[in-house]
Specification:
alpha+beta
């Protein structure tokens, strides 16, 4: 990255224009109070408008895909969609049910539920086959997707019945109450993640900067960026509906990139301050930092945004919601880094100058700057030694290590995570398990939807009855009751539910769906001329959703690889750097996938961390695609920051080998700090209850660790050292810069090695001509 130190405005040529990042940061530095007030006003405005607008959540229509989605659409058009149902289970606390006590509880429950405006009707009680349980179905008004917002009064009446009949166990479950329980658990989990993340982040930043005031800056900007993003996401949800994951992703990504970007800028501002030795005012130091790290922040943010937008190609409401939330929070983090951060740094520096002036007045001595120019510490020199001394061996061994970690990913098994995989700490799911044990026919309902001409309604009904008779003879389906038929008012649409007494994710439930679609329906309903038919239900929806994802996966991955290559190649003017970036990101993602399979699919996480078995045995279907895209974006943070430092030195004529060692070493401390913060944020999500969030948090944490300590310290420098000048092909600017460096070395002006890189860095004040604005 070619760094141009700006002169005073009077010394600047009339045609010279500074980059937008520098102009923005300079204005903020010269008007710090205006910049801070403007940023805070922006945050408050975003939150205020967002809260006023509210969040528009995705509806059932937004989730429809494949044949299941087509069946749901047909049923909804005929007003034969699934009604929202809550099941109240009544069991004895010990022994068999008492008839009189149970009858009194049923009458009490029925009267209470019928009095509620949210209830459409209450079905007669049904006793289990063993006579030890009784259930009462309460059918709610409205759409099934909205029922979770109106289920609280029903739960209240169920609790009242329980209090009135303490000798019995009266509990409520159903899709609405399960959704409420999952959302409540998610809120508690987010609070826990914040409680874990903030203290560890504080300690990490304190170790990096040694100042409580400087620690507050990254946290303040990250939290305000998150607040602005939450408000904006509420507004945007009215254009792109939120699938219920927006806040999770904003917190997850916002804290990570918000602290990262601030660290990048702080690191460079401190280096410039130390190098200037008190000759530059705070405004000029911020201008210099903006010309380098400010540009890197914008490029990194743009890379994350561009990478994430490829998720829209999946044409899925959940992935679109994830992409939208990530784009918004990254934009907010970049904006805060270019406006509020320069203003804060100037005010902090001015405060430090005033304190130094008072100290000088008391002691008569001016304190020397305590911050050293950029260099490589002893630890990082040791870590870089393999790449410096044996690059071929270091490259081969590290790549083989990551490939070995990636090997388990070959056997990855994907599954749509559903009721079977949620935490059993949710009371509604505990009741669900007891309900489906007593009434196994309620585990899975395959809804068959048939549309034909009204005159063919009797023929359709006869075909469906024949299908029902066949399923009752099949061990994959329930046998106790004959499936009920429902016909629309115009007699064009008929539905029938077929029960399967197996869990949603079981092979038997999948086989039952496959047999319906491939065998029973074509040989019964399929013989009715002109009849259109499809199957929906939980199993059908999960199966079609996974098939839809697999279909879109090549498109998303191909687009991601292409945009990552193009962006990296354009930023660094090097096709080779673009190819290396794609290869390293693929290697990092593959290793993360291998580890998540080893820990979650093979149960190692349960052994080491005591995770609930519901979080293991399979990988959430959304996890690989989301991780692949997000990891590519986040890896660009380190790629841009480290390679930018290398390119700066190379453009000053430092040989590529020394430029690589200098660039990696100079960025070591901030990369370490940023990686620790990221790992802390991501690892905190492993302690949440939701299986997908556990897997996402674990995968991101291990990927960042591998990226920061293996790829950027061993593989990247080894590869660039071996490539030498070919690294920058086909850049003519770099070729000329390297030729000038060789001429200087031949003339005895270069010192070589890392010290030569540092000397070239220090000498750039004269190389660009003129003094930077703000020279004392």
């Amino acid at each position: 990255m070619n760094v141009a130190v700006r002169t005073r405005p009077t010394e600047r040529g009339p045609k010279e224009r500074r980059p937008v990042t520098v102009r923005c940061a300079t204005w903020s530095a010269r008007h710090p109070w205006r910049a801070l007030a403007g940023w805070l006003a922006f945050v408050v405005l975003c939150l205020g408008v967002g809260i006023s607008a509210g969040t528009h959540n995705a509806t059932a229509e937004d989730y429809r895909v494949g044949e299941a989605g087509r069946a749901e659409t047909l049923a909804a058009q005929a007003r034969l969609g699934h009604e929202p149902v809550e099941q109240v289970l009544i069991t004895a606390r010990s022994g068999p049910l008492d008839g009189a006590a149970t009858g009194a509880a049923v009458r009490d429950l029925t009267a209470r539920m019928r009095a509620l405006p949210e209830v459409a009707r209450v079905a007669p009680p049904v006793r289990s086959a063993d006579g030890r349980a009784l259930r009462v179905a309460v059918i709610m008004k409205g759409a099934e997707a909205d029922a979770k917002d109106h289920v609280a009064p029903l739960a209240g009446q169920t609790a009242a019945v329980q209090r009135s009949h303490p000798g019995l166990r009266v509990e409520e479950t159903g899709s609405p109450s399960v959704s409420v329980g999952v959302n409540a658990q998610r809120s508690q989990d987010l609070a826990l993640a914040e409680a874990i993340t903030l203290p560890v982040t504080l300690l990490t930043l304190l170790a990096a900067f040694g100042s409580a005031l400087m620690v507050a800056v990254p946290l303040l900007l990250a939290l305000t960026s998150i607040a602005a993003a939450v408000g904006l996401s509420m507004v945007v949800s009215h254009v792109m509906p939120d699938a219920g994951v927006g806040t999770n992703i904003i917190l997850l990504i916002g804290m990570a990139v918000g602290v990262d970007y601030t660290l990048f800028f702080l690191k460079r501002e401190r280096e410039e301050r130390a190098r200037a030795g008190g000759r530059l005012r705070p405004e000029a130091l911020v201008e210099l930092a903006a010309a380098t790290s400010g540009r890197a922040i914008v490029v990194s943010g743009f890379a994350v945004i561009v990478s994430t937008t490829t998720l829209y190609l999946a044409t899925d409401v959940v992935f679109s919601s994830l992409a939208t939330s990530t784009v918004i929070v990254v934009l907010a983090a970049v904006l805060s880094s270019l406006t509020a951060l320069p203003a804060l740094l100037v005010k902090i520096a001015q405060r430090a100058e005033r304190r130094a002036a008072r100290r000088e007045q008391r002691t008569g001595r001016r304190p020397e700057p305590r911050v050293r120019p950029d260099g490589t510490g002893r630890l990082w020199r040791a870590l870089l030694r393999p790449a410096r001394t044996h690059p071929v061996r270091a490259l081969c061994l590290s790549v083989l290590l990551l490939l070995g970690l990636a090997a388990p990913a070959v056997g990855m098994q994907l599954r749509v995570l559903n009721k079977d995989s949620h935490s059993r700490e949710i009371p509604a799911l505990q009741a669900y398990d007891r309900l489906t044990t007593a009434f196994p026919d309620l585990r899975v309902q395959h809804q068959i939807v048939v549309r034909a001409a009204a005159a063919q309604a009797p023929e359709v009904a006869a075909a469906l009855r024949e299908l029902g008779a066949r399923t009752r003879q099949d061990s994959l389906y329930a046998k106790d009751t004959a499936p009920a038929l429902r016909t629309s008012r115009d007699r064009r649409t008929t539905t029938m539910d077929v029960s399967t007494p197996h869990k949603v994710s079981s092979p038997q439930a999948l086989a039952a769906l496959d047999r319906l679609r491939r065998d029973y329906l074509p040989t019964t309903v399929g013989k009715v001329p002109g009849a259109e038919f499809a199957v929906s239900g939980d199993v059908a929806h999960d199966t079609d959703y996974l098939a839809h994802q697999n279909e879109k996966l090549p498109l998303v991955v191909g687009a991601l690889l292409l945009v990552t290559f193009l962006l990296t190649a354009l930023v660094f003017r090097s096709v080779v750097i673009g190819l290396i970036g794609v290869a390293l990101n693929l290697l990092s993602a593959a290793a993360a996938f291998g580890l998540v399979v080893l820990f979650f699919q093979h149960g190692l996480a349960g052994t080491l961390f005591g995770f609930d078995p519901t979080a293991t045995s399979a990988i959430g279907s959304r996890v690989p695609l989301f991780l692949f895209v997000i990891l590519f974006g986040l890896s660009m943070d380190y790629q841009v920051f480290v390679v930018s430092r290398i390119r700066e030195a190379a453009l000053r004529g430092v040989p590529t080998r020394e430029a690589v060692l200098h660039g990696v070493g100079a960025s070591a401390k901030v990369v370490t700090s940023a990686a620790v913060v990221m790992v802390t944020v991501f690892a905190s999500y492993m302690f949440l209850h939701l299986a997908e969030m556990k897997q996402i948090g674990f995968s991101l944490a291990v990927a960042v660790l591998l990226d920061a300590f293996v790829i950027r310290v061993v593989i990247l420098p080894s590869a660039l050292i071996l490539l030498g000048r070919a690294t920058w092909w086909p850049s003519r600017t770099m070729r000329r810069a390297q030729d000038r460096g060789m001429l200087r070395e031949a003339g005895g002006t270069g010192s070589g090695g890392e010290s030569g890189a540092a000397g070239a860095s220090s000498g750039r004040w004269q190389e660009h001509g003129g003094r930077p604005s703000g020279v004392r």
